[in-house]
């Protein structure tokens, strides 16, 4: 029940959500390596060093976009990456709402309600503007959407690795779930 949510529960949900987002970024880094026909676990490769030196997530996506566009062996994969690019970009904005917030409290019909106010400013409080508040169920759903996104990027990693006929160890890890190849339906971005 929203009225019974504690700050500790909200902080735990935020932490879990941000940790899941870190898994998304890790898979994106793996995708970059596989696009360049490099093993996912070559942590000292100059390409990985260059990729990870770029802090902006959007710039990292652009690096993969340019690499996919320049690789003649990935022509059929391009529409799939375009859809993933859009999905990741939208999700990244949702990640920011969870990462940059202030706790808020308000009177609810069943008692006090607390949640997150993304990008809080006193001007938004004064003017009653800004982004809608996020309650615990919404934060948990956001985390679940990030978990689905991790799986989606894993599917792309496996698809590219298979398309490039790379050794399985370049793109698979012990315990990875085998994903089916991408299909035409995977070229349409759904909401993260």
Characteristic terms for this protein:
single chain, 192 residues, 56% helix
Radius of gyration: 19 Å
List unreliable stretches of 5+ residues: none
Count of discrete alpha- or pi-helical segments spanning 4 or more residues: 6
Number of domains: 1
The averaged pLDDT comes out at: 90
Strand content range: 5-15%
Shape designation: elongated
Distance between the termini: 25 Å
Structural class: mainly alpha
Major β-sheet, in short? Answer: 2 strands, antiparallel
Would you summarize the structure shown here?
56% of the residues lie in helices and 8% in strands. The chain has six helices and two strands, in the order H-H-H-H-E-E-H-H.
Describe this structure in words.
56% of the residues lie in helices and 8% in strands. The protein is mainly alpha-helical and 192 residues long. The protein has a two-stranded antiparallel sheet with strand order 1-2. The protein starts with 6 loop residues before the first helix and ends in a 29-residue tail after the last helix.
């Amino acid at each position: 029940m929203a009225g019974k949510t504690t700050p500790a529960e909200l902080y735990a949900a935020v932490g879990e959500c941000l940790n899941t987002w870190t898994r998304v970024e890790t898979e994106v880094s793996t995708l970059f390596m596989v696009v360049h026909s490099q093993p996912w676990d070559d942590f000292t490769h100059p390409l990985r060093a260059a990729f990870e030196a770029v802090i902006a997530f959007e710039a990292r996506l652009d690096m993969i976009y340019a690499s996919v566009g320049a690789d003649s062996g990935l022509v059929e994969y391009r529409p799939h990456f375009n859809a993933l690019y859009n999905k990741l970009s939208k999700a990244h904005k949702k990640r920011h709402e969870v990462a940059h917030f202030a706790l808020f409290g308000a009177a609810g019909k069943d008692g006090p309600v607390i949640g997150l106010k993304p990008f809080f400013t006193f001007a938004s409080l004064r003017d009653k503007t800004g982004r809608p508040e996020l309650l615990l169920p919404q934060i948990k759903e956001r985390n679940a959407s990030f978990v689905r996104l991790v799986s989606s990027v894993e599917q792309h990693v496996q698809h590219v690795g298979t398309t490039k006929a790379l050794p399985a160890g370049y793109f698979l890890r012990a315990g990875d779930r085998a994903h089916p190849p991408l299909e035409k339906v995977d070229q349409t971005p759904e909401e993260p």
